[in-house]
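**Discrete fold encoding**
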Amino acid sequence: MGDISLTQVAVLLAAAGIIVPLARFLRIDAVLGYLLAGVVIGPHLLGVFTDPEKILHVSEFGVVLLLFVIGLQLKPQRLWAMRRGVFGVGGWQVGITAVLLTALMLSHIGSWRQALFIGLALSLSSTAMVLQVLKETGELELRHGRLAFSVLLFQDLAAIPMIAFVGLLSVSGDSIHTMTLEGALYGVSAIAAIALAGRYLLGRAFHLIARTGVNEAMTALGLLTIVIIEIVMDRVGLSAALGAFIAGALLADSSYRHEIEADIKPFETLLLGLFFISIGMTLDLGLLASQPGIIAVSAAGLMLVKGLILDRLGRRYGLPSDTSRRFACALAQGGEFAFVLTAIAITTGVIANDVASLINVVVTITMLATPVILLTEKWLTGLLTKPSPTPAFDEIPESEAHVVIAGLGRFGQIIARILAARGIPFTALDGDPTQIEVIRRFGGRVYFGVA
């Protein structure tokens, strides 16, 4: 991280290690705590860090790790089943939001290029923010959480052509960021290579490492996989997070996915916390103090417009009114891809520095406001909703219960054979990869891991 001192590293680790327990104690969202910590230690208050871009560049790896872990939990069959949410709701959300915001911007600024850029940049939401908040509240596996993930996935896909499109909007003639046919072919080739490697090579590599019994090597291989993906995607000008998600999704059927997730999780949590701290550092308090009215109206208007569009799309998708409202509140903010797009737009002459700073402050404010809005929405819903009568007891299904076998030693193998003979489904965990291959023949789901 360049010339960052040990004192600054200590401050970062203290912020990351103390904020979460303190936030839990105060019953506020951990992400909000990280963002506020970044504001405090950033260049505009205590001044511990004067160049937050250095921290942001490194901590963005946490977003890549997050998408890899999410991919591990999402099998390709499930992804195909989500296509209506991804391309239907996600596509309509980005399209309608971009058109409406562009029209609103045209009424205030004269340049259609700037208006179109702002509409596209602000149509995206924060993948890292939303997924982290929904995971912490246990909503990611609920219906509105899955739909939110679908929309975020489409937005990550849409960000790739947006980055190329910024170059086409250039008024300076600089075409360095314009996607050529050759660049597009390189991008498609890179995604295909990652998909093939994830499908046919990674599983075998983890199997060979697991047979050695060296747990540290499993962790190293998992991190190496993600680093290589980031290097490849960066070389072809695509999103590293997208490549990591594809690799993770292709490992979702692997017997080693639980162990890989357990190994990578601490790194993902720490770096993601640093990412949110660095976002808090980038908040320009000077601009916020000089133009509070414009920023407040812009942030509120952005969240209102996106929220209304998302709520309507959620209801058309079939969500009830309360969960559709929750879905809209979760995705109404601006996203971290806006920072990437504004940086490119400055170098290509699409927007000026002052406009980029205003966009970044508005996006940061909406990201800061998201946990507060979700907490407020939950409190108001609980306050206004009448308690429902005590439900009747659920009927016990006639089918046999699912069995988990913790360890496939001699006794565990006997149980597996008996269950297979009776036709009772079971899931087994074992730390011996050879044993996994043997037991898999009996028809149960077997995963590598220490129970």
Summary: Confidence is low (pLDDT under 50) at residues 172-178.
